[in-house]
Design brief:
InterPro entries: HATPase_C_sf, HATPase_dom, His_kinase_dom, HisK_dim/P_sf, Histidine_kinase_KdpD. This protein has a single domain (10-229), classed as Heat Shock Protein 90 (2-Layer Sandwich), CATH 3.30.565.10. The protein has eight helices and nine strands. It has helices spanning 10-36, 44-74, 87-97, 99-104, 123-140, 169-173, 175-180, 191-202, and strands spanning 82-86, 108-112, 118-122, 144-152, 155-162, 204-205, 208-209, 211-217, 222-229. The strands form three sheets. Strands 2-4-5-9-8 form a five-stranded mixed β-sheet. A hairpin with a 2-residue loop joins strand 4 (144-152) and strand 5 (155-162). Helix 1 packs antiparallel against helix 2, helix 3 (87-97) packs across helix 5 and helix 5 packs antiparallel against helix 8 (191-202). The radius of gyration is 19 Å and the shape is globular. The termini are far apart.
Length: 230
Amino acid sequence: MADSVPEIDFATVLASAAHDMKNSLCLLIQSLDTLRQEESQLKPAAREELSRIHYEANRLNINLLQLLSLYRLEKDQLPLQIDQYPVADLFEEIQLNNEIYSEQLQIQVEVNADPDLMGYFDQDLVRSLLNDIFINALRYTKSKLLLTAEQNAKGLLIEIHDDGPGYPGFMLEQADTLMKELNLSSGRTGLGLFFAGLIAKAHRNHGQTGAIRLKNGGQFGGAVFSLSLP
């Protein structure tokens, strides 16, 4: 009699595969960064293709990190590593991660944050959250992006402004739902917003909870993503 097929925990298999794919993508991104050093020798079409590949690789890397984080949260294996970090360094890293694509598109990136401003948060998770929003903003903005940060009565407020068409009405109307539920029946799952809302709410301090907000207008009249951390 043939041996029975062992029961497979698909979620664990998926998480393991995502981890391996993420490692491979990191190596690919490093190779693309190396190629960028020879960018001046490439033809315009090749430079454009290099920036597009780098952009898509970054998006995939972020999506895999989100999947792994969600899996670990479900298994209670993702304790937040809260510590004090300089916000300016966080912004600089996000800019550098996306420099190839932003320069190719001739997107001007501005920063408005006190160099001495510090925040208390999980660096890896918040960096992934903001990098995802930044990459999405690069896709829709026309010519410029703004990263801002300030300390207010509720804690740290970080915003990303663009000069694109703004968030569509349905996103503004259903923002709370998109942050709480994954819609797997449609072409767009809203994984980014779901992840952002989850990570924001995981940050708690003195009875206050982190939150995200979507709106239009802001400094450039386009979309504005806000992250509040207590």
